[in-house]
Amino acid sequence: MNYELQVDLEAVRFVLSLKRSDCARLIRWMDQLKDLPFTEGQLIVLDATGREIQVSKTDKFLVYHWTDHPVKTVRIVKIETNF
Fold first, then answer.
1. Mean pLDDT of 51-75
2. Residues 47-59: pLDDT tens digits?
3. Which residues pair with 68 in a beta bridge?
4. Which tens digit of pLDDT belongs to each residue from 27-49?
5. Is the pLDDT of residue 83 over 80?
6. Which domain does 28 fall in, by range?
7. How many domains does the chain divide into?
8. How far apart are the first and last CA of the chain?
9. pLDDT at site 24
10. How far, in Å, CA of 2 to CA of 19, rounded?
11. Closest CA to 65 of 82, 44, 35
12. Residue 41's domain is classified under what CATH number?
């Protein structure tokens, strides 16, 4: 579908702080999200502007993302540990 992936700096820092295997697994997951831009999360939260943010649960993480279809960009705005 040729969508671009944009990741918030704090999310990048989070990924880089992980052990190598978790980092690699999460990067593969994000790459798949880029290729499937219509992916819906298990939860939806609203950001400060009222935009719906999808929250996808992976094995160890919660990934907050939304897709800007007019510009073909998947935006990851936050990643946190899923406990």
1. 96
2. 999 999 999 999 8
3. 73
4. 999 999 999 999 999 999 999 99
5. no
6. 4-81
7. 1
8. 33
9. 95
10. 30
11. 44
12. 3.30.2310.20
